[in-house]
Amino acid sequence: MANETIESHDTPETASAETSSKATTPPNGPRVSRRSFLSHLGAAGIVATTAPVLASAGTLTPQTAPAPEAPTADPSAVPLILTVNGQKHSLRIDPRTSLLDCLRENLDLPGTKKGCDHGQCGACTVHVNGRRVNSCLSFAVMHPNDEITTIEGIGQPDHLHPMQASFVAHDAYQCGYCTSGQIMSAVAVLKEPVGPTDADVKQAMYGNICRCGAYPNIVAAVQHVRNQA
Ligand code: FES
Ligand code: FES
Fold it and tell me: What's the whole-model pTM score?
């Protein structure tokens, strides 16, 4: 009975507060309930926060996705003419490109191998003006006037250099990864003032590492060619 009295005799202030919490009637617009207003607000928030995700997933219209950038030329590239195996090549390369990377990636000469890339293994040995160098330690732009020779310029399968043929005959390799560097060093040794013994050859080629341990056969192959010269 007491409850009925309370429900049927709300004060004007209570009734007004309850009414305003349930609905709002703008002066010149339709009646908008509080629940409806909050629902629309929530929907707008969801659209605002998920639009970038939907755009990246391709679910929105194409205009909302950024256009792909057109490839641009490397602004730091410099012109370079390189003479390799008797052939001149006109290039534009990043001045930080090593001679090794230039040979392998710009000139498509993969016979020169990248081992350590730090001057410690000799796999990248090439000749510059007849002298052996580690091409990983030299910038390509340092050689515009030099004659560079790689293993491809030493010989080809149908016309092997005597040192290449000797490596094959003496089974002077296992995996073969170090072999082009070994042969380039060995060919250079033929023109260097190196003593006649096996120990002299080992000393002369100490910078060429063979992780397969084919050293006895490598020395035998080199000595065979030296003794025939
Ligand atoms: S790759 Fe050049 S010395 Fe090892
Ligand atoms: S043959 Fe494998 S590293 Fe020398």
Answer: 0.70
Q: Note whether 48 and 59 are within 8 A (CB).
A: no
Is 121 a pocket residue for ligand 1 (Cβ < 6 Å)? Answer: yes
Write out residues with Cβ below 6 Å of ligand 2: 173-179, 210-212, 214
Domains with residue ranges and CATH for the chain: 78-153 (3.10.20.30), 155-228 (1.10.150.120)
205 Cα to the center of ligand 1, angstroms: 14
pLDDT in tens, 78-113: 999 999 999 999 999 999 999 999 999 999 999 999
Model confidence pLDDT, tens digit, residues 174-214: 999 999 999 999 999 999 999 999 999 999 999 999 999 99
